[in-house]
Design brief:
heterodimer, A: mainly alpha, 6 helices, flat, B: mainly alpha, two-stranded antiparallel ribbon, about 65% helix
């Protein structure tokens, strides 16, 4: 199995050589697990497309000038809908980006916390000094996150009026 | 070809079951609405050409046929490609989430060409199951905002903007709620999360009540159910992002909406209420399971999911809709700090248990349960006292006292 080209590509080249990521266990690729995911995605898309096609084939088609207009409760639309909008939506997007990415950084630690191949193994192999150090690092990371949160709050990023 | 057959059969059954379930959940919702409002719901449609009414069980079929035969009109002012892409995106993503969600545990079937019992999940053994769910539920934002943008209608545009802001804002509490469970389980695989709870008999909702509250509120908002249904509020935005849709494309949006609720119910049950586990049920390993236990697990899981869906529907008919600023305040100023508090409390308990070498939670559950509830109660009191939810309830003076109308100012122009 060591000579499997995919195995060599993913584990030896991508993980070991390029990204310098240490892989525990060296399991074979997850293709048995990943294949159904792709199958399901294809099937779900096919079902959705088929439903739209059936609807457009079966139903009646009658055009009309009033039907062409945007529905705005009977008012004649004044201008195009795509106008400038409130800058606070951008602020929410930026705040989301910050917090969501920081959350993603927490996921590896969360998985490793009780996994026998996680922090415990790292401590046993002396890659880190102790579990307490890891916890302290995560705590300081979350405190930094909280400091940024307080700053954004005081700046009025979350104020909607 | 052989390894494809089992997943394909599972996918076919699951997609059929989900579409049927979405149709019948609409009927259930209308029955519950009728019950709450003390009137008769849909009770007429039964078998056609006879007088058999069957309590209205034919209603979803009639609704589906009506949707198919309705005119599907594409107005001239829309962006045609994106207009069609939006419902397809949202439905495909909503369906594809179910690839990693276990419907029960396993079936003790020994088919030729497969190894071991059939696992009741389309993609068994995906190590990043929770991240996959998270990623695909984020794609729903694309469907909503594409629909709102492509419609080129002011209601749709406002609805799309609002709902994209709402969905991304509530993704953070959602992730924080999941993180607590991941820390105490040590795995992102949904099957492992259930099995961990079943082995100890202590569901995560007992040890992390605060995480449960944060996750339930966030999943209500992600599923756009009342009291968080601002994306499609009928009274204000005439349907929001699907104002301009008709026929099957509208049906796709509506199905996706109900599927989001089903996903949320499954996740709440799996992450916090032990999945297929109930006390007194034997917990054998997957390869020596009997037919009765396997069937019982499916029944228990479905019963729990139905109970959560019932909760969703009752909430719908008992709560008014939030205002948009209250919604945003709840996400950023209440749920995010509560989620962080829960996260650090769970992490501290896990570290303490590890330091004391308490591995078996079934005999030592009092400490995590006590700390979890203590943190939850204290945090809830603090939030109730200081949460800035109602500070913005005072009337807006600029609206109450509009500038005096001066006819001459118009005439002079």
């Amino acid at each position: 199995m060591q000579q499997d080209p995919k195995w060599v590509f993913y584990y030896d080249l991508l993980c070991d050589k390029i990204h310098k990521v240490r892989i525990f266990g060296r399991e074979p690729l997850m293709e048995q697990a990943v294949l159904p995911l792709f199958l399901f995605a294809v099937c779900a898309t096919a079902v959705a497309v088929a439903m739209v096609r059936v609807g457009s084939l079966v139903g009646p088609h009658k055009a009309g000038r009033v039907k062409e207009m945007p529905y705005e409760s009977g008012m004649d639309p004044i201008h195009d809908a795509r106008r400038r909008f409130d800058v606070r939506f951008y602020l929410v997007a930026i705040a989301f980006l910050v917090f969501d990415v920081e959350l993603l950084f927490l996921y590896p630690w969360a998985v490793a916390s009780r996994n026998p191949q996680g922090i415990d193994r790292a401590v046993a192999e002396q890659w880190v000094a102790s579990r307490g150090l890891v916890f302290f690092e995560v705590l300081s990371f979350v405190l930094l996150l909280a400091a940024g949160f307080v700053y954004a709050w005081r700046k009025g990023v979350f104020r909607w009026r | 070809m052989a390894p494809l057959i089992v997943p394909l059969v599972k996918i076919g059954l699951l997609v059929f079951a989900l579409l049927t379930a979405a149709a019948y959940l609409v009927l259930l919702e209308r029955w519950i609405a009728a019950w709450v409002q003390d009137r008769k719901g849909p009770n007429r449609v039964g078998i056609p050409l006879t007088s058999i009414k069957l309590f209205g069980l034919g209603q979803p079929l009639a609704d589906g046929l009506k949707f198919i035969f309705k005119e599907e009109y594409t107005p001239a002012h829309v962006d045609k490609a994106l207009y069609t892409l939006a419902p397809i995106t949202i439905l495909a993503a909503a369906l594809a989430i179910f690839a990693v969600i276990p419907i029960g545990s396993v079936l003790p079937l020994d088919l030729p060409g497969t190894d071991g019992p059939i696992k009741l999940v389309v993609a068994p053994g995906v190590d990043v199951g929770m991240i996959y769910v998270f990623a695909l539920s984020s794609i729903a934002v694309y469907g909503v905002i594409l629909g709102g943008w492509a419609s080129n209608n002011k209601y749709s545009f406002l609805g799309g903007l609002r709902s994209s802001a709402q969905l991304i804002a509530y993704e953070i509490p959602l992730g924080l709620g999941i993180l607590g469970v991941v820390i105490s389980t040590g795995s992102l695989r949904l099957e492992n999360i259930i099995f961990e709870q079943a082995q100890s008999g202590v569901w995560n909702s007992f040890t992390q009540p605060l995480g449960l509250v944060v996750f339930v509120v966030a999943s209500f908002a992600e599923a756009a159910r009342l009291p968080f249904d601002l994306p499609e509020c009928e009274q204000e935005l005439i349907g929001g992002y699907h104002t301009e849709y008709s026929g099957m494309r509208l049906l796709l949006f509506l199905i996706a909406e109900f599927l989001h609720m089903v996903v949320a119910a499954f996740l709440i049950v799996i992450l916090f209420f032990g999945g297929w586990h109930f006390w007194g049920m034997p917990v054998p390993a997957d390869d020596i399971i009997s037919w009765s236990v396997a069937g019982l697990r499916i029944l228990v899981l479905i019963a729990k999911v139905l109970a959560v869906i019932l909760f969703f529907m009752l909430i719908r008919w008992s709560w008014p809709r939030f205002r948009f600023d209250q919604l945003m305040n709840l996400a950023w100023k209440v749920m995010l700090p509560l989620g962080l508090v829960n996260l650090m409390a769970v992490a501290a308990v896990v570290e303490y248990q590890h330091a004391r070498e308490i591995e078996d939670l079934s005999t030592n559950a009092w400490l995590p349960v006590g700390i979890g509830w203590g943190v939850a109660i204290v945090a809830w009191i603090v939030a109730a006292l200081f949460a800035p939810l109602h500070t913005d309830n005072r009337p807006r003076l600029d609206v109450l006292q509009p500038p005096a109308f001066e006819p001459n100012s118009l005439r002079s122009k």
